[in-house]
Each structure stands twice: as structure tokens, then as C-alpha cells.
Amino acid sequence: MSKEKPLQLLNDKAEIRKAILSAEDIITQVVDVPEWGLQVRVRGLTGKQIDQWQGSLFKVKGDDVEMKMQNSRAKLVAMCIVDANGKRVFNDGADVFDLGDKSSKAIKRIYEVARVLSGISEDALDEIEENFPCLLYTSDAADEEDSVDLGGR
I want to staple 74 with a disulfide (CB 3.0 to 4.6 A). Which of 32, 56, 99, 140 is the partner? Predict the structure, then answer.
């Protein structure tokens, strides 16, 4: 059992910035995938990557926006499986499509680990579908720099 370092409260702006930007905060976990006869490394997403994944769930054409939930789990899995150097194993596009044809049991197992490591809620896909009109409204308002009352705060 490892002993956790005590948390620091820094006061200097430069020290705070340096501490945050140099923190090793992306977690990787090895997952057994018996369906494939191997183990894979699954790394949590960065802030930019989670936005990319969420953005991939929508198709925007002019003023029309539609949900693209097909292969959404395979998209996350493809973004999170990495090699020993932390580099993505799968590319977007054809690799994601091919990965979507693999065992749903294996994809689900890896997706669950990727979801937890990335801080994605258990019901994230359902919430996105349920709140689709609201997400569009808040996104449009943010683009126009309008304030949006999300309630409950």
C-alpha cells in the first residue's frame, strides 16, 4: 500500500501553474480481454480528448444537428487503448469502425474502465441523448456568449 503525499496549498501564481501543468494525472490501467487472448493498456482521456469524444457524438451540417450514437463506445475505447509508450493504438475512422465489429462484451469491459478513468458518468450516453435539445441550447448560448441558467445551482 502506497502512502499518499500530503496535498499542498500553493500561494504563488507561477508555482500553482507549474504544479498543475507538470502533474502526472492521466491514469493508465491494464485490462484483461480474454476474448482477444491478451491484456490492453487503457488510459483515461485528457480534457481536450473528452471534448473530442463528446463532439464526435454529434453531426453538424449548417443549422441541423443530429446525434451520432452509433459506435460511441468503440470511439471511446479506440481513444483510450494505448501502447507501452502511451501512444494510441487505434486511429479514428476505419479503426473505430473495425473495432465496433469486435465482441460487445470485450468492448463493454474496456469502455467501463475507460469511462471511470476519464471521469465519465455511468449514464453519460443516456444523459447526452436525454438532454440533446438542452445541450444544443447551451452550446449555442456559449458560442454567442449568452448566459444560460442550468438550474439547480
Answer: 99
